[in-house]
Amino acid sequence: MAQNQFKLLGTRRFLPLFITQVLAVFSDNLYKNALIVLLVFRMTEEEANTLINIATSLYILPYFLFSASAGQLADKIDKSKLIRIYKMAEIGIGLVGIVALFTRHYALSLAVIFCYGTYAALFSAAKFSLIPQQLNRIELLGGNALIQMGSFIGTLAGTIVGTLLVGFTHPGQHGLTYIAIILICVALSGYLASCAIPKAPAPSPKLHINWNPVVHAIRVMYSAWQIPSVFYSILAIAWFWLITTAYLAQIPNFTRAVLGGSEEVITLLLCSLTVGTALGSLLCNWLSRGRIEPGLIPLGAIGITCTGMALGFHSSHFHTLTNADLTQFFNSQGSFLILLYIALFGVFGGIFTVPLYAMIQDRSSAEIRAQIIAISNMLNSLFIVAATLLSITFLDILQISIPKYFVIIALLNLVVVSLIFAKLPEFIMRVLLLLPARTLYKVNFKGLDQIPNEGPALIVSNHISFLDPVILADIVERYVRFVAHPAIFKSRLLRCILHMSDAIPIGLDLDDPNSRERTYKAIEESLENGELLCIFPEGKISEDGELQPFLKDIEEILRRKSVPVIPIALHGADAQAENTAQQPKKKRKRRLFPEVLVIAGQPVESINTDSESLQKRMRDLKKNKENN
Where, residue-wise, is CATH 1.20.1250.20 in the chain? Predict the structure, then answer.
């Protein structure tokens, strides 16, 4: 079942990194927003807008310049040591930033923004590549969810505190002093937290660093391209940052021009988006039972499109207020739906991104993992810039209203993610498996850790319903390729799913020797490629839930190649399954949402077992049902 992700906060493997991350995000957002508000109130509108745009660009620029080097450093040097160095540098950056704020030296303040951006680019590659090094595979999704939640909470807190304290910078007030104290305390606390991060030995200590970011980025992207799920996950994350920036950047103008709200309403909408994203990130662990579940990604993408369109359509009919405070906004018709759509946009955004980050960490090679994550950060920055150009094109040049712009971006999201999913049918297949398995049955399981995380293996399961492949494909974390009897292809849904999963359709009881030999060769090639296969050796669905005799060809499959064989017993997937053998079929009652129990046994090498011993082991698993 799903791991309780919050238990990670009680471990030294994760808590120091989590605290370090939250404080890092808080401090640079505190400084950045304090500077922006100072510029707005100390300069003319034109001067302020120019400097704000420069500040934003200077914060993003280091991701282009230093991400490639950041990834190489994180793969070459112990990440815990590297993070401590970065946190020491943050203290120095904070001190210089304080001097710049007190002296109103805006050129120096912009230099500090650039330094914070550099620090963020370096730290990001180290922290995301550290997560899979410190956590077990089953903890990976929950760890990423907590990191995402912490990032958004730190961002929101830094934004609010920085904005509020700058309001107390008039003569006789001490807003800047409070900012200085908080910056130093947070930086020192972050460094102390980083000192508690356990050692993380470098996976590539002999790596020769290439300081040319363009050449190195191309090389790393080519390496990622060799693993399609990693490559397209990188693109999907970059696209997410584009659409998030497209919406987020317009929140202030959307609030003033469309809703007619004050600064309080802007803060409220930002809080709704942040809380929604944090909630969506945490929901991932529950929805996926703690496993890395690609099926959540299409659900998140569809949710982003639906909520984005709903926000655009609904706000286009909103009665514009006049500098409304929170009370006036809440009293206006349709305000609750505006908040709901923004919060749900964040929820689906969290559901979309957390599995993508976990997939990159899990499926990329440990030797270049940090480099791949760093190049992903570089691409994210490029897409953020593209979002700015997109908003200029639609809002300034084409003069499209903000609500219509939201609808266009939502539709564009549907097109782009559809193209990505076309390249990765695994995402669609997993969601097709996820929906029936989670809605038709209540599934419990035990012993699935017996299935190896990588390498060739063969699952041998009893067969009590047509949806057995759906249940197994849902609960087994690895991609499963099924060896399926032709009869199962009669179901349109299963035929679609099995075709997408590249199932091997066979009839093991056919007399055609060529057909059987082709089947054996297909199975042998699949195992040689390191795939996980699943076969139902009974060859048909059991009428009474009892284990039926195995087809004789299972012996040939076991003999062909030595691989781990994992016996699995399914209980209760069909209302006809158990204790109904004596009832006429017409009188058998089907339970609504039946409970299914899946038990996996100890693996055994295929050459050390046979059909008879496998049957005995599976019968023993079925007999042990009452003890589970």
Answer: 1-200, 225-423
